[in-house]
Design a protein that fits this description.
With 573 residues, the protein is of the alpha/beta class. It has 18 helices and 17 strands. The protein has two domains: 232 residues, no CATH class; 189 residues, Winged helix-like DNA-binding domain superfamily/Winged helix DNA-binding domain (Arc Repressor Mutant, subunit A), CATH 1.10.10. The protein is 40% helix and 11% strand. β8 and β9 form a beta hairpin. The radius of gyration is 27 Å and the shape is flat. This is Bacterial transcriptional activator domain-containing protein. InterPro entries: AfsR-DnrI-RedD_regulator, WH-like_DNA-bd_sf.
Length: 573
């Protein structure tokens, strides 16, 4: 998970689905058909070549890069979180946009490979120098190219994108002005500006070339540029000049509309392109996206906006991650006598910290369906229960609810059948369309963890024994072997409660050596958190261990660097 990241993306989310924005009028009146592929599959189905989501289709490589960018959001939140003993700041734990979670869910149970070093598909698929795009898929393909080029630009030795202001407004609507400023692209007002950025340069040694990355040679070797514009961005003569300049610079110029004196291909609503001069030749298929899907994806790629203020809510310290109202009296602590109503040999235990497993008398049950296991884990995180809509939205994001009720019932029926083969205990209660784990018949390691945290935080006494009890109750991250996208906020919130307590105990500890040990334990829980490293660095410095402090910081930077290099990310991310 640590490697699936590109530093510098947003933590803001898009939670609504606004209508397609009107196309703004810029330097002319550009008329485009704007259609996306019909939702025939009714699923974010993953195929060998790509992923279908509501609002579009993504090639497999692009989908993998989306999941990498999504993982970065959570890795960045881990890195930047500042542990607080009484009022933890969880304002950044909002779920990612629906299209992103749909892509994550589609790839969650499929073999994953790191995204390629460079997404060269547009360069390989389109004519050298450039092309015009016409037909009903023009805007969906244009948005797909926008996202594909920006994602590829997150890889070193890859792609940079130049887009005209008018074209960005056509593709993104009202979001263009605010979102465009936070995206890693170059926005130009005119076609002539775009042509100037493509001109070869012979700068004085050490002088930067516009659009050139640090360390890149003046030849731009290994670095390709894409220009995205529409056929009303300039005169015919200006567009011809841009095409000639692009050809000389080995850049790809894509015109949304007819290309003067150049090839123009037809784009259909499913993303397939066709060269009118070779109608029988199968064409490539490019990423297609509607406005909402594009905005969702770009939100997690963009640099973060200002963090929202976190008011002092006055909530109790270290609340339960998924359900602050969890009544502690209903939790089954390990030292309490069992309250099972049947034979004592049948004891059900749900383990969700680490690899999720349901155990009966210590023996694991095989749960065949991923959805069934997700139901168990979801209800463990939400002990007050969840209704059908909450469960289906989490397990099958982005799909219409009316088509999912049957899937949920199948998952629940299969789960109950599996449990009945080994026990007659009613594990899942169902009342008023609300499902809930029965705490009289099952105990959950997550519940015990939060009981232990609550008891330790209430007194902050007996530091060594209390902290060891927390570490014993937290053997691993929440469902650490699973990549279900709905897990991320809960996994991070649970981890934060542990390091919050670690920071609180370290601050109270009078023995500097013991305080240091606590902070080192906290770093073991979250090796990416910068604030824990800062506190440990200060503790080492106070003890006169300056070399050890330097080594600690060096290891932290190496850990973050490995997270970038695992997915071949540029060092300047």
């Amino acid at each position: 998970m640590a490697g699936a990241a590109v530093f510098g993306v947003a933590t803001n989310t898009v939670t609504t689905t606004p209508p397609e924005p009107p196309q703004p009028v810029a330097t002319g009146t550009a008329t485009f058909h704007d259609e996306t592929a019909p939702d025939d599959h009714r699923d974010q189905a993953v195929r060998e070549d790509g992923v279908t989501v509501t609002g579009g289709w993504l090639p497999r490589d692009v989908a993998e890069q989306v999941t990498a960018a999504a993982a970065l959001v959570w890795l960045r939140r881990r890195r930047d979180y500042q542990p607080h003993p009484t009022h933890p700041d969880d304002t950044d734990l909002t779920p990612l946009p629906p299209t992103v979670t749909a892509v994550q869910a589609a790839l969650a149970d499929t073999p994953s490979t790191p995204p390629s070093n460079e997404s060269a598909a547009p360069f390989e698929a389109l004519p050298a120098g450039g092309v015009g795009l016409t037909g009903p898929g023009t805007l969906p393909v244009g948005r797909g190219l926008l996202v594909t080029a920006i994602l590829a630009g997150q890889r070193r030795s890859s792609t940079s994108l130049i887009v005209t202001k008018a074209t960005l407004a056509i593709l993104l609507g009202p979001a263009a002005e605010t979102l465009g400023q936070r995206l890693p692209l170059t926005i130009v007002d005119t076609v002539d500006e775009a042509a100037q950025l493509l001109q070869p340069a012979n700068p004085v040694a050490g002088e930067a070339i516009p659009g050139q990355r640090p360390g890149e040679t003046s030849s731009g070797h290994g670095h390709r540029k894409m220009v995205l514009l529409n056929d009303h961005d300039g005169s015919e003569q200006q567009l011809k000049h841009l095409a000639e300049t692009g050809t000389a610079a080995a850049a790809l110029v894509v015109v949304l509309g007819e290309q003067p004196d150049g090839p123009s291909w037809h784009a259909d609503s499913t993303g397939y392109l066709r060269d009118p001069h070779h109608p029988d030749m199968p064409g490539p298929r490019l990423c297609i996206l509607d406005w909402t899907a594009t905005t969702d994806l770009l939100t997690v790629i963009a640099s973060p906006g200002p963090a929202p203020a976190h008011p002092d809510s006055g909530r109790p310290p270290l609340p339960y991650a998924g359900s602050p109202e969890l009544p502690l009296s209903r939790q089954v602590a390990r030292h309490e006598p069992t309250r099972l109503s049947t034979a004592s040999r049948q004891r059900l235990h749900l383990r969700v910290l680490g690899d999720p497993q349901l155990l009966i008398d210590g023996e694991p049950l095989t749960i065949r369906r991923s959805a069934s296991l997700q139901v168990l884990v979801y209800l463990a995180i939400h002990p007050s229960g969840a209704d059908t809509a909450q469960l289906t939205d989490a397990i099958w994001p982005g799909l219409p609810r009316h088509s999912l009720t049957g899937r949920l019932y199948t998952a629940l029926s299969d789960l109950r059948s599996t449990i009945r083969t080994a026990s007659d205990l009613p594990v899942i209660d169902h009342s008023d369309d609300r499902y809930r784990l029965n705490p009289a018949h099952i105990d959950v390691d997550l519940w015990q963890l939060h009981t232990t945290i609550h008891q330790t935080a209430a007194t902050l006494a007996h530091t060594t024994a209390a902290w060891q009890a927390v570490l014993d109750a937290y053997p691993a991250d929440l469902a650490t072997t699973r990549t279900w996208p709905w897990l991320d906020p809960h996994r991070e919130a649970t981890r934060r409660r542990v390091i919050d307590l670690c920071a609180a105990l370290a601050a109270k500890e009078s023995d500097p050596h013991r305080a240091l040990q606590l902070l080192q334990d906290g770093i073991g829980v979250d090796p990416y958190n910068t604030d824990l490293h800062r506190l440990a660095d200060g503790a080492l410095t106070d003890l006169g261990c300056t070399q050890a402090a330097a080594k600690l910081q060096h290891r932290h930077q190496q850990t973050l660097r490995r997270a970038r290099s695992a997915y071949r990310l540029r060092e300047d991310q």
